[in-house]
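Tip: read the tokens left to right.
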């Protein structure tokens, strides 16, 4: 493990607070390995962040035993963008240190549509129009996860 801080939880970490349930969020997925929640400043509606429950700052710090289960959950969310939101595909990204707004490993899973205007790594942000719109998108993703899991 690198010199980066790693523990079960970090009291100062915004994402650890979400994982512990100490901060509000719109959770679309959770299991024993990770928690997925809507980004509050999404590139496109449905933009989800997946974080490991265990506090690790960087991808390199994720214990090897968790890499497979964690990225299986990334795969699930990528599928859900298409089945739950009728997207044409998805964009999946991890920032390590540079551009990492919260120093807790997180994977961005963003729904994509042909002609959506996303170019390179310039990410214009679009806020949800209301809390109810964010809750509606949350429900769509939760329902799609349930449907995929039921069919698996």
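Filled-in amino acids:
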């Amino acid at each position: 493990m690198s010199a980066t801080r790693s523990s079960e939880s970090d009291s100062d970490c915004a994402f650890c607070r979400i994982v512990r349930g100490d901060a509000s969020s719109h959770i679309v997925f959770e299991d024993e390995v990770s928690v997925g929640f809507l980004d509050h400043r999404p590139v496109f509606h449905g933009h989800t962040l997946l974080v490991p429950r265990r506090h690790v700052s960087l991808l390199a710090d994720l214990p090897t035993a968790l890499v497979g289960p964690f990225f299986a959950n990334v795969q699930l969310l990528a599928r859900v963008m298409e089945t739950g939101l009728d997207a044409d595909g998805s964009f999946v990204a991890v920032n390590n240190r540079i551009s990492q707004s919260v120093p807790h490993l997180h994977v961005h899973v963003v729904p994509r549509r042909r002609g959506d205007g996303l170019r390179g790594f310039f990410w214009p942000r679009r806020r949800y129009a209301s809390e109810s719109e964010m809750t509606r998108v949350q429900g769509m993703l939760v329902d799609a996860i349930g449907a995929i899991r039921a069919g698996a």
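Confidence is low (pLDDT under 50) at residues 1-6. Residues 65 and 74 are 15 Å apart (CA to CA).
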